[in-house]
Amino acid sequence: FFQKTLCAVQSWFTLFGWSRGQNPISIPHSLRRDVCIVQLTVAQEKNFKRKVGKDKGFYEMLLHLHGQPIPGIAASQSLPPDPVERMFQLHWQHSELLSFLKSQGAYLPHVMPEFLLSPEDYELWTEVNTGLRVGSMRSSGKLSSTPIFVLERKAFEAMSKRAWTDVLLQIFKVFVLPRVTARIFPELSSSESLQSIPGIKSEPLCSNVYSRYERTVLVWLNKHYEKNRQIVWKDSRRGGIPPTRWIVNFDQDLLDGLVLAAQIAAYCPYLIPTHFIKMYTNPGTHEQFLHNSLILVKALHAINLDIDVKV
């Protein structure tokens, strides 16, 4: 499950996280590299050719998604060439990043700044904090009074991958999801009610699982599915019209592809006779689920919505 989540996160941020088109990312390797823009010496600068449009750092992505820079951290900045000083500055940057995200509503109590460092910088951090290496004067040999987790290389890589994945998920939660409002779905405010299924409340405190933005998406899914299921599959020869369902999650209720097909059909009805009518409306085997998924992906390709969805 975690690997599938990681791949989905990588795909979304690769496609939509940047201001100047796609930029492939790899969690955590490219993210750790992107924040380590080390200041070059004069001799190095002479042999360094900047690839315009390709040097996209993590904080540039954050600036694009948030619209404003993180207080105190520029989208592109240099770091000290000294390894220990660089580690101190990166640790401070990550601390500021986590504090800022938490102030915006992110939930990251389990992510420590050191988990976002590169393996080499993490090793320096543990050496300084355990007294094996003398740090800078301003740190007094210690970065903080919090408990120190000394992890082996393999364990650290696993922790770092999880930490960066959670950071990106929370960035999506606090900077992207809030763009979802009832105003961008005018059909949600119509007087038409769904008598056959329970409603989903929009009050901020009515759920400890989903935010109000996620509940807006659930309402949108329910409305379109209930309205379009009888239109899309009225002539279905592979199960007839599918039954009413109450969509309350983003995994199990979407597995058979019918809910997503109903959403696409609401905006692209011409795909009904060419694609969606061929779907199984009551799939019961793995082959039928796969069949529906393939049709859904082909429909996305037909409207040039190629978002690298894997079946």
TrEMBL record:
Any one of the GO CC terms: cilium
Q: Which domain of life is it from?
A: Eukaryota
Every copy of the Calponin-homology (CH) domain together lies at: 211-311
Q: A GO BP term, please?
A: sperm axoneme assembly
According to UniProt, the name of this protein is CFA47 protein
Organism, as annotated? Sylvietta virens
- Lineage of origin: Eukaryota, Metazoa, Chordata, Craniata, Vertebrata
